[in-house]
Amino acid sequence: MNEPVLEFAFEIRVDIDPHLRIGRSADEELSFTPIAGGTVAGPLLNGEVLPGGGDWAVERSGTAQLEARYLLRADDGAVIDILNRGYYRASADVIERVEAGENVPETEYYFRTAPVFQTDAAPHRWLAEHQFIGLARDEDGQVCVRVYVVR
Length: 151
Hints:
Layout: E1 6-16, E2 20-24, E3 28-41, E4 47-49, E5 54-60, E6 63-74, E7 79-89, H1 92-99, E8 110-118, E9 132-139, E10 142-150
Antiparallel strand pairs: 1-3, 1-10, 2-3, 3-4, 3-5, 4-6, 5-6, 6-7, 7-8, 8-9, 9-10
């Protein structure tokens, strides 16, 4: 069996509003981060992130399990649903630096996702028919996800 090949597809830059703390138990904390908009740019897709939706996070033992759901609008007007699940893990120092607005190098924390897309728009149907990997980072108050299609 051949090794998978990753092809850069596009980068999603998501504008976020302050996160909302939902609750905490002895072993976990639940929060929600609203999505305010953003951009999509790359060789295989360009457009915008529509306001609405958001990212639910459950933190357990220093690792946050993420589930973000929101909409993209391609430059041709097609609307694309994205469900982006992943994991975020960083030291307390790195989290403090990110929350203070510092652009911390992505090598200092783990932030990976597996986006799944849905659309019936013919030019973008390929999104609903492939597996993707996202390499994410916090940058300038945005969450940036470089999306790669697995070939």
